[in-house]
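Residues pack. Consider this:
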Amino acid sequence: MEQPIKILIVEDEMIIAANISLQLTNLGYEVTGIIPRGEEALIHIKKNKPDILLLDIQLKGTIDGIEMAQIMQQDYNIPIIYLTANTDDAHFEKAKTTNPHAFISKPFKKLDLQHAIELTLHNIQKDDLAVKSDPINNLDPFVLSDCIFVRHHDKMVKVAICNILYIEAERNYCRIYSKTKEYLLVMTLKDLDEKLPTNLFLRIHRSFIVNISHIDEIATRHVVISKKAIPLSKSLKEELLNRLHTI
């Protein structure tokens, strides 16, 4: 079953945010949260990364929407749709530096919201096709005994296997989380799982492979790696425990 598109709403006017959430739910999207402040939204994204970010430019708090987007983009490439009431030229030019996919002016109609999201999804798919058409992006990772070569921007870079914390599935992509960086691979989690050394890596959930040497905690339904809670499938927990006994 295809998973719904996940959207995070960052809006400090709760009545507007609740109305947007209702409209998105009726359109078949999954709302991961309604967050009033940019600082809180950055924390939320680390725990539950959305596919699209609906972001009010003029937020209350220590950072506004544009500043929040700039901080987020240091670690994540999440498409942004800005929500705005009255934006002057200076704010508009500043917002453009974050390469948003759309602007929606308040007050807006349901159709405005729907069209902005559909346009964003169309652009994402177009970008995906462009990535896949680049020959270097079609290269599979090279897995050696102590490292893996993966595509990063326009080149292949070496990532030490000991530095890989975990890997998360993102539709037909995989995102490798290392101690210092993230790498997006154009391949499925299943294909990558078949290439990784089985003595170190284990798929513990349909969307996650972990480096078992980096597990800090094991709970009933999740494990913790570097303060990140990763879901643990009940059917795979016994295998994980057996593997840990053999290390």
